[in-house]
Amino acid sequence: MASRIVRVLGAGGGSPGMSIEQPLWRALIAFRLLALAYAVFRYAVAYEEYEHPAGGWAYIAVLTAWTLATLDRVASSERCTRPFLVADLSLALSGILLTSVLDSQDRIAAGQATLPTIWAAGSVLAYAIKGGWRWGAAASVLVGVCNVVERGDVTERNLHNIILLFVASAAVGYMIELARASERTLARALQIEAATRERERLARDIHDSVLQVLAMVQRRGNEIGGEAAELGRMAGEQETALRTLVTAGPAPAAPAAPAVPPGRTPVPASSARRSTGGGSTGGPSAGSGSTGGGDAGDGEQDLRALLGPLAGAKVSLSGPVAPVLLDAHAAREVAAAVGAALDNVRRHAGERASAWILVEEETDEVLVSVRDDGPGFPEGRLAAAEAEGRLGVAQSIRGRLRDLGGSAEFFSVPGQGAEVEMRVPRRARGGRPGTGHGGPRGRTPDGRGATR
């Protein structure tokens, strides 16, 4: 038994790697053992003063066996399950209430300790460590109520003990909540750091080879002229797309237009509008058919393929590696809304403004955000524009998303650019559910959904 206790205290039953809360579980194991020893000692010293000492010994035996048999259950959050917590607290509460039956009323009135004594606090602390301060506070209230019932009155002494247990459990629970939040934040920071280092390594390798070759082809093509100039222009677009990839994360390649040789990467948004025949929205027409390479099956399209032609020198596109499948009509409408948003960027922020498109997959919906580095707009400007009869945002963007059962939210700080977040459910109104291929959302460190 001694070797088992040492093993549980040493290993803690936790998962490999760093764990901020694991020392608390090990401390709880030590507390339960010490509290058990104290309860056994107190009863062994005073059992003759009880009216029914045999019943007390029976409870102490059960308490000892339970504590030693469940050491590994309080070694980690995964093993400390809800059914165990309920059984553990029930044993503590029953010991408190049983004291009023086994002990004499004179001893109870004199303020003698209950059968489990401070062992009951271990059950409350287990609740706090497992579920936070709310769980711990609720368990301490139950222990306090049972103490009042056992004593038959609220005295200064038991009120002091009840308040002390409540405050201690709430403090421990709040501390563990902060520890878990800090651990999650640290894990995200480490992931971002690892991804940034890998991206920088790839950027260095690509810059030393591919980008230099593409820049040389562009320069020599412009010098030679003729067909070589067209080849140089294509090399320049490839260089721009590749620089976007290594600086802003992965972006899906755009489908080649019919008149462009294979291997061409996303073209500027102005060219995309001309090739798709779109109007002022700048994206695929809402009533147009499937864009080449965009079909993922009957009634479904890859949203990345429709957004690919909108990328260019001033427009960066990022999204999942796997296809983002939506109902074909919904995908075209979202692409048209994105095109309208880019038109607004060019119209209000100027041709020199840069924009970023980010596509993200969630369990039940797809999120597309468009950000720019323009001057932004003051609060209430969109409502005023709609009141003046300018319905570009109201109809081309919000109207399209509303018809799909989604939403569009606009955010802006004057002087810091603007952002629109478009959400569309996978089962759009009148459509079929898309097939999920994405994982966790790829939010950036600032939480806004794209990088500047």
UniProtKB/TrEMBL annotation:
SUPFAM superfamilies in UniProt: ATPase domain of HSP90 chaperone/DNA topoisomerase II/histidine kinase
Chain residue ranges for the region called Disordered: 251-302, 419-452
Bias kind Pro residues: ranges: 252-265
UniProt keywords, alphabetically: Kinase, Transferase, Two-component regulatory system
Biased composition range(s): Low complexity: 266-275
Record domain Signal transduction histidine kinase subgroup 3 dimerisation and phosphoacceptor: where: 198-219
A UniProt-annotated Pfam family: DUF5931
InterPro entries: DUF5931 (IPR045975), HATPase_C_sf (IPR036890), HATPase_dom (IPR003594), Sensor_HK_TwoCompSys (IPR050482), Sig_transdc_His_kin_sub3_dim/P (IPR011712)
Gly residues bias (residue ranges): 276-296, 431-441
The name this protein goes by in its record: DUF5931 domain-containing protein
Residue ranges the record marks as coiled coil: none
Organism this protein belongs to: Streptomyces thermolineatus
Stretches assigned to the DUF5931 domain: 17-187
The Histidine kinase/HSP90-like ATPase domain, residue ranges: 335-427
